[in-house]
From TrEMBL:
Protein name: GNAT family protein
Organism: Salinactinospora qingdaonensis
The organism's place on the tree of life at top rank: Bacteria
PROSITE patterns tied to this protein: GNAT (PS51186)
Domain N-acetyltransferase residue range list: 18-181
Signal peptide: none
Length: 189
């Protein structure tokens, strides 16, 4: 049985290079800037252009959402905001949840920060929340994301054909998931 109190506990999860803290209004300006980044929007298939007010409302409202976990990713030791992630669609009956992550700008990518953040949140998801399965959707062209997820134990389970229409071209999305045992194996290797 999963432990839903883990979603109310406002955890801070610390690693070597990043630390994850609850996303709040304090991160809203950085979060808003990230939503305007053209490459991040392409990689996440974000058609909707987030307004400044929406960004602030989203960040402010996170601390009142007890059915999901929204964390800011801070680079260490500077504690600079470099992105955010969520565990959402938590399904207690099936002990599963969906995952998404976005580093804020291309300059933060490819340096191992996303992998470390994902490992930290999966550790929390499996150890503290006691989930069995975490799944996500990723566009098939996003090779860096797929590699980062694979190294945390995710495997590809399926393909959603032509799921994204971006600037006149259609792209497939992949469903990836990691089960608790896959994660334990991935982190021990
Ligand atoms: C996806 C994301 C979280 C990954 O985090 P990251 O810090 O950039 O990735 P890491 O440096 O931790 O790991 C990258 C992995 O991809 C590999 N990689 C890097 N650039 C690559 C590229 N262009 N093509 C293929 N693989 C690549 C690295 O070698 C590494 O693989 P390894 O673990 O086998 O060594 C981050 O890039 C991101 O947020 N990007 C913008 C938004 C986005 O794409 N979100 C995901 C939507 S599903």
């Amino acid at each position: 049985m999963i432990d839903l109190s883990a979603l109310r506990d406002n955890p801070t999860l610390s690693g070597d290079r990043v630390c994850l803290v609850p996303l709040t209004g304090e991160h809203a300006d950085d979060y808003y800037r990230a939503t305007q980044d053209a490459e991040t929007r392409r990689l996440t298939g974000s058609h909707h252009s987030v307004t400044y007010e929406e960004a602030h409302e989203y960040c402010r409202s996170r601390q009142h959402q007890f059915d999901r976990l929204d964390l800011a990713i801070l680079e260490l030791p500077s504690e600079r905001f470099v992105g955010e992630l969520s565990l959402r669609d938590v399904d207690p009956d099936n002990e599963s949840a969906a995952y998404r992550i976005a580093l804020s700008a291309i300059e933060f990518t490819g340096r191992g920060l996303g992998k470390e953040a994902t490992r930290l949140v999966l550790e929390y998801a499996f150890d503290r929340l006691a989930l069995h399965r975490v799944w996500l959707e990723v566009y098939a062209f996003n090779m860096r994301a797929i590699a980062a997820y694979r190294s945390c134990g995710f495997t590809v389970e399926g393909r959603l054909r032509d799921a994204l229409l971006w600037e006149g071209r259609r792209h497939d999305a992949l469903i990836m998931a990691v089960l608790e045992g896959d994660f334990r194996k991935a982190i021990s290797s």
